[in-house]
Amino acid sequence: MTYRVIHRTEYRYESAVSESYGEVHLLPADFAGQVCRESQLRIEPEPHDVRQRTDFYGNRTAYFAVLEAHTRLTITAESVVDVDGRGREPALVGSQGWEVARDRLRVHRPGDALDVRDFLLDSPMVATSPTLGAYAALSFSAGRPLVEALADFNSRINRDFAFKPGSTSVGTTLTELLERREGVCQDFALLAIGCLRSIGLAARYVSGYIETFPPPGRPRLVGADVSHAWASLYVPDVGWVDFDPTNDQFVSDRHVTTAWGRDYRDVSPVKGVIYTESKSDEMDVSVDVARIDEPA
Fold this sequence. Notes:
Layout: E1 2-24, E2 34-44, E3 49-54, E4 60-66, E5 70-83, H1 89-93, H2 98-105, H3 113-116, H4 130-137, H5 146-160, E6 162-163, H6 174-180, E7 182-183, H7 185-198, E8 203-210, E9 228-235, E10 239-244, E11 249-250, E12 255-261, H8 264-267, E13 270-276, E14 281-291
Parallel strand pairs: 6-7
Antiparallel strand pairs: 1-4, 1-5, 1-13, 1-14, 2-5, 3-4, 8-9, 8-12, 9-10, 10-11
Helix pairs in contact: 4-7
């Protein structure tokens, strides 16, 4: 599949902002199964400075500084991405029991457990707990094959939690999420990560997009898509296995990855600091993921 992805974020302020400094994770990654053919980042007003680098986890990150007064800030990222062969990892895991992956991660081996130890530990938005471990253990029973356990765990989150935009915030804890049983894709990804880490497995947060289809007989709406998130489990000798609790599936060629990290705070699409006396602001986000012609 080849997709054109357009992610546009607009901030409107009640009064002038004198300076804006921001960091974005909006440029798709390159790895086995995904190639970003082209990408561009447009910021209005024209920034005084824009710099790109690769962050600690290998993500493409951009920083910008707008130093002129403004009441509106628009950030648009446009990319063309080839996706091919994603979702093959579950078949490579075979029938090994899930405890094999857990036990392998307890032995520090260069190029293996050492590379993923950040994803075994607590992070700012994910704290392990016996309660989370107990929820995971309902799927990860003794000796159960890893892929079978992960598929069941993925489906349980999908069944047990209702997708309800606006029901949570960035400050909602995993304990509160377990009680409310509702949230959005970011919440379900963080919950899955917390549960897996609580039973000794390495898991990371993945930010990106998914191609969506309109209802039968209805035209596709430009900008109707939103940014998406899912989780990824590390399996020694195989690599990362991405799964999507929101849609009860392993990640496929309909998913486009922008970045990964310990949790949402590592890879939030846009974050930054502004200097203003404004007491209110508004934000609009639109995302469009459109399939285009086959790559040249």
